[in-house]
Amino acid sequence: MEQVKPRVVHEPFDEIILRDELRELRKKIPDQPGLNPIIRVAFELSRKLESEQITFDELKQLAGRLMDRACVHRAKTLRERIGFVDHQTTLKEFSEAIAKSVGNDASSDAAFAAFEKRWTRARTGIVFTAHPTFGLSDALSKRVIEIATGDANADTKIGVPHRPDDGITLDYEHQRAQDSINNLRDAYVDLLNTFFSVAAAGFGERAYKLKPKLMSIASWVGYDLDGRTDIQWDYSFLTRIKEKRAALNDVRERFLVLKHKLGDGGEIQRLGRQVTGKLDLAIAATDEQIKGLEENAAAKGAGGTLAKAANIITRSDGYNITTTEPIVSLLDQLIDVIEQPQMKRSVAALSGLTIATGLGNSHIHVRINAVQMNNAFRAFVHEPWTRDLGERQALARIVEMIRDAKPQDVNFETLDLETATAIRQFAMIAQIQKHIDRETPIRFLIAECESPATILIAVFFAKLFGVSEIVDISPLFETPLGLETGVRMMERLLEEKAYRDYVKGRGRLCIQTGFSDAGRFIGQIAATLSIERLHQGLAEAVAKANMPGVETLIFSTFGESMGRGTHPGSLKRRLRYVFSDESRRRFAKRGLPIKHETSFQGGDGYLWFANKQLSARGLATIVLDGEDPELDVHDPFYDDTNLSLDFLLRLRSYQQNLFAHPGYRALLGAFGPNLLFRTGSRAVKRQSDTGAVADRGDPARMRAIPNNAILQQFGYVANVVAGLGAAVGSERDRFVEVARKSPRLRPLIEMIARGKTLSSLNAVGANAIVFDPGFWAQRAAWAREPHLAAAFRTLSTHLLDDTRADAISGLAHHLRLDAIDLHSILEDIGLEGGKIPDDFRLELDLLQAIRLALIMRVFILAAQLPRFSTRNDLSHDQMFNWALGLEVPEVISVMRMAFPKRHMTANDASAKYDEKASYRPQGIDDYGRIETEILEPMEQSYEFIREIGTGITHHFGAFG
Q1: What does the pLDDT read at residue 850?
Q2: For residue 368, is pLDDT > 80?
Q3: What mean pLDDT comes out for the span 131-142?
Q4: In 10 A of CB 280, how many CB atoms?
Q5: How does pLDDT run across 919-955, given as a tens digit for each residue?
Q6: In which region does residue 14 sit, left (phi positive, over 0), alpha (psi from -120 to 50) or beta (all else)?
Q7: How far apart are CA 368 and CA 227, in angstroms?
Q8: Buried (b) or exposed (e) across 728-742, using 16+ Cβ within 10 A?
Q9: Residues near 916 by beta carbon (within 8 Å), at least 6 away in sequence
Q10: What are the backbone angles phi and psi of residue 726, rounded to the nearest 5°?
Q11: How many other C-beta atoms lie within 10 A of the C-beta of residue 339?
Q12: Angstrom distance (rounded) from CA 724 to CA 726
């Protein structure tokens, strides 16, 4: 009988001791240049894990405590960045800011006119976007907010796994966005109450005649078709009606709370009944429309269900409303007859919310790609000249078509039959305008827009479908070429009367600037400076076009990470980082009205607005960011244009060369996105890749979010940190002098410094060690782990021709030479770059070491996978390679089919056979051991590898 070994009980790991061990190892590096502390600790953990000196559960508990600490730090950082103290402090500071704009002589007409001018045009805006960055589950997000708005110490237990929710769908993303929007609506009402309180104190009763627009709130979740083909028009249309229903119900519930406090007067009661009656009928109408569309969706358009739903939507029964005017008019009449100032303010605030958001919880943005727009036009026209839309002849013909276009009517049948995405979007907008909301503007974003013809085509379709009055067509400039040629493209557009007439009719010119692809291809700092140059060139182009009163709307889209263009400082710093003070001055000096909108992306971005209190703080900051800039400010960064331009060009060149470095490709492709959970409903690969097998390490074929997420996971945000030394060049003294004094250059260097404090080339080298055949050969050679010697030899032999370790190590050496100059320059400027890491960074290194030990376990288990005959064109070598790329779910699935574990059922246990057998099938036990000794531990390790990845994102403050 096999003797059972006694279980050795170990003391729990102490992360502080291990953190100090890393610190001591770092001190030895000057005398042992080849020493990598992360590898050393990971190796020791791996050896203890494989020899059962420690258990998987103990390692998991250790990592769990580190991730909890990182999550607490993330929550506290969120609180600091948004500047939250408490709700009363937010309202008090906002009140003081509004009071300054009242002026010293509130009784004068001039003061009132100036106040009205300042507050009846929104100068800022928030847009909720939803790319795959839902790395925190809803429960984990709530814990972050509890900590951010409460008290917590470093040892606070989080109590929920560090991972996203399972099965993230578009509906899930939309609901998360709507939750944030609802919090913003609450905050907006609070700020409007404060606004009217201050305004009435200064201007008396006439304050209630104001229609303030503090800012705009918008979302593209459910309407963004760039890079995805899984959102049909009926989904977006139904989503819009549901948002309308939610908004009407929200206004109704808010009014019912106020209604009984308004007074007993007959006129008040009559108007109150009219408000609720109008809202009740409008809600009933939307309920019928929703039911019809849901029945159509369930039937998938069969049996005339679309026609039935369409007839419900289009009937004229007087209940459906397509304008806020009836509601706002009744509320305004109520304000006139209410006597209590507090109630006047409350009703005015409700009216202001209704005006600001229209017949929806927020405004909406639709988005497509320039290729989709151009293809739709070619399908529409069928003429040879459309083959090259950059030709002058093509532009002239499109302008003629705009001039001669006669509006076309569409119905839901034509909308459903249309196959061209761009045309279908315009037709859908036409139906939204007719049947849902005829007033609220809709942004039409066009990604990767590099030709004026694309915008003119959009103007043509807007006119053709009769939506020119509500659609704001906005090109997105984010590719390197787009940023280079964007100003010239806008100048060319403004030369065309057709475009100028369209812009004048809308009263605004819109563009979108993006940091994603730009930051990926040329680095974030170079991208930021390129975008700033575009802003400043646009100011000149708009001024030259001479369109008095036309607003320039700039929508800055970025993610929540440094790798996606977000400054890690305060919210105010972030807003000025993406739209600089100098760019604002260029517009102000020319007398050009400007509006700046910023995106908040996915689960990370929604944390800023996860409850009413944080929302109010963020909203107040963004509203006040619209104040006119100081004009007489000197910034030395703009004195020497040669210095600033050379800095940009050299940094751009360094990043482009880095992007092409074979080690960069190897790093991105080593594990690909397999270190990460799936964090959204949109695909990781670009849409154009769906038809071909692509190298997963090719940066150009990967989306920006996973690109940045992998850089974080490998431990070095190179597209933020790298290249400063090369960019400064021989002008170091002059650069350092300017950086110390420049309000613009300083935050750029701060972002680099922050990225460097979190980055570790030791982590890069450590994550590559598992691909080094010498590492595994050494483990075999010393015979300290004899039970695994065969697995080590298998790994070493298999990896002899693998180039990943050398390529990634070469990249690390390349970056280390750059980091020498980086640290030196940061020290001269007076910024901390993490040369001597603090406790927080050492805990990040420790998480890397723990995860590396688990990756080693996966590799060791992979080397023990039993061989099997090729099946379904899958071989043992393919399984091995998949495992070494952490394609663990695929490996597990195939191996379980090849070696199924037989589970005994209740019938098996109770069955009695009279006939005796001396032979027992050996595969029963062998297959069972494959499951319990290889597959289950591999699966278990892989799941926690990904959970540690979430812990690493806590340190960086965002996913990708």
Answers
A1: 98
A2: yes
A3: 96
A4: 14
A5: 766 555 567 789 999 999 999 999 999 999 999 999 9
A6: beta
A7: 8
A8: beebeeebbebbeeb
A9: none
A10: -65, -35
A11: 10
A12: 5
Say which DSSP state 871 is in: B
**Mean pLDDT, rounded, of the chain:** 93
- Our measurement of the distance from residue 436's CA atom to the centroid of its chain's CA atoms, rounded to an integer in Å, reads 29
Give the chain's length. Answer: 960
**pLDDT on residue 5:** 45
Rounded Cα gap, residues 486 and 521, in angstroms: 17
Return d(Cα 718, Cα 739) in angstroms, integer: 21
960, 702 in Cβ contact below 8 A? no
Beta partners for residue 365, in sequence order: 443
Strands (E) in 581-664, as ranges, are 594-601
Helix (H, G, I), strand (E, B) or coil at 639: coil
pLDDT of residue 698: 79
Sign of the C-alpha dihedral computed for residues 645, 647, 652 and 653 taken in this order? positive
Residue 688's pLDDT is 41
Average of pLDDT values for 634-638?
95
The set of residues, in sequence order, having a beta carbon less than 8 Å from that of 430 and lying 6+ positions away, is 410, 465, 466, 467
Instruction: HSE, CB side, 13 Å, CA atoms: give it for residue 181.
Output: 32
- Using pLDDT thresholds of 50, 70 and 90, give the confidence band for residue 10: very low
CA distance 956 to 815: 20
**HEC profile of 657-720:** HHHCCHHHHHHHHHCHHHHCCCCCCCCCECHHHHHCCCCCCCHHHECHHHHHHHHHHHCCCHHH
Backbone angles phi, psi at 52, to 5 degrees: 65, 25
- φ and ψ at residue 510, rounded to 5 degrees: -120, 140
* Residue 830, Cβ density class (10 Å: 0-12 exposed, 13-18 middle, ≥19 buried): exposed
Location of structure tokens 């692509």: 694
